Amino acid sequence: MKKIFGRYEFDLPTNILELVYRQALIWVGTTYCPIIAILSVISSSLIFYIKYIAIMVWGDPPKELYSSSGQTNGFLIFMCLTLFLSASPVWYAITMLPPSCGPHLVNAFVTPFQYTLRMWDVIPAWIDTLPTAPRWALNFAGSAALTVPILIVLLLYAYYLRAVKEKQGQKLRELEAEVKAEREDKKFLMRFYKVQT
User: Where are the annotated coiled coils located (predicted)?
Assistant: First the structure.
């Protein structure tokens, strides 16, 4: 098989961009067809194992080494940007536009949500039909009393991670300076004692 297909080099950035693009399509499509989420788990698992076997059999390691810290931050920023850009039109459609098809469409069927103008209107109407305890829990989960403390904790955690990263960078610079000073000391001692290398 290697003689037929030859060997190829694994291209990390291209594969990550394909994965992010696939994830964006899944995020957008799941709103309109929820079974896409299940199908995407199955197809992503198949694609992963097919690529894994292909890499193990025919793949060569990349010639260019990638910086893990720089690449990771870049890919995370790209992933967040993709999430925002793919979620914005979906969120707008859910909260602002009247549905044109599907289960949220205003139709002649007798349902408790018959007169919804937007897809979002179904959720508060459904919550109002629940018993008291679940209704209170869902209303509390969507209130600022819960979301603001969660956002504060997440921001504090992000600040902590940034501080740890800066401290690790500072320690790394100190160690590099120490190694450089020791190298210079060794060179000086070798010159002083006229040691031949």
Answer: 165-192
The predicted pLDDT at position 104 comes to 53
The pLDDT of residue 87 is 83
Range from 35-49, 76-90, 169-183 carrying the lowest mean pLDDT: 76-90
CA separation for the pair 95, 102 (Å, rounded): 15
pLDDT tens-digit series, residues 88-124:
888 888 888 776 665 555 554 445 555 557 777 777 8
Cβ-based neighbour number of residue 88 at 10 Å: 10
Top-confidence residue, 15 or 164: 164
The pTM of the full predicted model, rounded to 2 decimals, is 0.52
Write b or e for each residue in 143-181: b if 16 or more Cβ atoms lie within 10 A of its Cβ, otherwise e.
eeeeeeeeeeeeeeeeeeeeeeeeeeeeeeeeeeeeeee
Contact 61, 11 (CB under 8 A): no
